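Reader question, answered in our methods column.
A reader sent in the components of a multi-part assembly and asked whether the whole thing could be modeled at once rather than chain by chain. We filled in our standard form and ran it. Here is what they sent:
COMPLEX SIZE: two components
ENTRIES:
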Amino acid sequence: MALPTLGILGGGQLGRMTALAAARLGVPVRILSDRETGTGLPFAGVTVADWEAPAVLREWAAGCDAVTVESEWAPADQLLEAAPDVRLRPGVATLETVRHKGRQRQAYAAAGLPQPAHVLAATRDDARSAVERFGAAVLKQFEGSYDGYGNATCRTAADVDAAWDTLASSDGLLVESFVAFEAEAAVTVARRADGEAVVYPAVRSEHRDHRLHAATVPSGFSEATERAARRVALDTLRALDATGVATVELFVTGAGDVLVNEVAPRPHNTAHLTIDAHHTSQFENHARAVLGLPLGDPGLRVAAACMVNVLGQRDGMAAPDLDAALAIPGASIHLYGKTAVRPKRKMGHVTVTAADVEAARERAEAAAAAVRL
Amino acid sequence: MALPTLGILGGGQLGRMTALAAARLGVPVRILSDRETGTGLPFAGVTVADWEAPAVLREWAAGCDAVTVESEWAPADQLLEAAPDVRLRPGVATLETVRHKGRQRQAYAAAGLPQPAHVLAATRDDARSAVERFGAAVLKQFEGSYDGYGNATCRTAADVDAAWDTLASSDGLLVESFVAFEAEAAVTVARRADGEAVVYPAVRSEHRDHRLHAATVPSGFSEATERAARRVALDTLRALDATGVATVELFVTGAGDVLVNEVAPRPHNTAHLTIDAHHTSQFENHARAVLGLPLGDPGLRVAAACMVNVLGQRDGMAAPDLDAALAIPGASIHLYGKTAVRPKRKMGHVTVTAADVEAARERAEAAAAAVRL
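And here is the structure of the entire assembly that came back:
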């Protein structure tokens, strides 16, 4: 068997890190991006073109043995129309479900997965009565809501009216019972088209300002919660028939129960620490799963690790202080080559491995702060 | 400080792996290669041109904040002539010493480093009398001998005559007392221009057919030998004023003493396992040392590891069996993207990390064999 070529639709940091993992294996990579994304892609096999143009998609796909998408919003449907024989992983059915928060909830309900109480509200009255029933609820746009955008927490009819006017689309919006979670977990799974899968240990994730700030392993949850999180994540991927890696974000309640929050059908920020802390990184297992190769050990190879995101603090040109950041003992610095900084833009991340999560956390915070972007 | 650009003179696997490590840090890389080396370089910043042409060197170097060479035979002298202000690491003095096995021995003698008894034989008679004195000796070409080429083991005057006729150059050749070593060790050191350095744990290396076959850590040597190996390696780099990473290959005698065999002033095959087994890989520390950035922790992050080379078995096009190799538990496969196979050509390597060196060794051998190149 000659080495297969991996196609990646999307030229941001997730594609970049997947390409780096594939390059180590010797696997050739072709990236198709719709714009110079500013990740300063260091790779030769990058095409920047109109990625909705059938001729562009057809020619690009012809050189790929299997194709993945960097996000659920990449033009997978157009790709399949232009090149019906392409091995697209994840498939369009998975992407269609994930793109719509209402369809996600319906799929999880059909599979009997634990999740927050919710209503697909077609009308303002549906939304009002759901909020009344739940007491407190989060209203979410079905499509396009992320990182705190397109969401509103509501307790009163007046809240609902305001949210409905700004958020509802023609098919309404999603009303989810507000979950006063104790913690948030994320479990990444790599799954091949034949159903073979490996499940990573649960990560404890911490958001600030609706954005991921830090992720730590081991999660510190009880053994029962850890086990439940992994099982639910695997079941969720099966329910979606997802292929490649995907991450299931979970709420952990005070009682230690887990509820599916949402799924990212691609490499995920909460699993970036797998590069430094696990036997096989999410990016390598993504490449392996997409290409149908045997999957690698998802276990930890260190005692503990913490990842902290490096977010932009201002507008301007990037001038990271690698010198200061690398001076923090044990800091593994990952910068994405973005030349322009914007407030809250993900510019990179730092992972520190250590004997315990407290030490890892402290040094990861220090190193991420030292980059000064 | 904006991110510095790293220049690499040479486009083989050492440059490839250094570039992958630099890319992770976000450091831009420029590679200058004199030919399509067949490593299928996946990078954008590659110039293939006559790398002895002053105009080529000047233009290329102008875009680099610091430059390193992939081997001591890269045209460092021409580079400095064309671009005198370039920050070249290692420097030309180090490269000149290392290129000539006689000068290496003289430098180590001047620094009081332990090494085999030897004679820089200017004439056939010098060589004969040295072999007579040593009983058994290895005659080596001063320049260009490697992997068993340009060497001859001699015990008699007739052996010397035959070796002299084929090996001696105008300045003679090197006669080294034959060392009946117990084992071979290799110690890699990363050293900055200001002298700051970190020393990797000793690796036990095993050659077959004069080529590196396997490398394992921990070395299993006594604490005293391990300590001596690290100290001698650091002293050797100081004696050479080497910058970047360099590896000191050592003979370990039955009494546990170490003798300097030779030095590679660049990333080295015995330290490829640092990618998977150590906190900071030799390639990342090479980039950091060359750019003058803080050096990373050279310690092991796993209990044990073994690297086995994947050598070509035949002539033809490469068709590695990644599927079979990745099915070996814990195998981390590194292929260099070379499209043409030749017997004994280094096509890649496999590293396995495990609880002990025996388990790591067994699985690394199996995975390397499974690649079938």
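What stands out: Chain B has a mean pLDDT of 95. Chain B touches chain A through 49 residues (CB under 8 Å).
Send us your own complexes using the same form.
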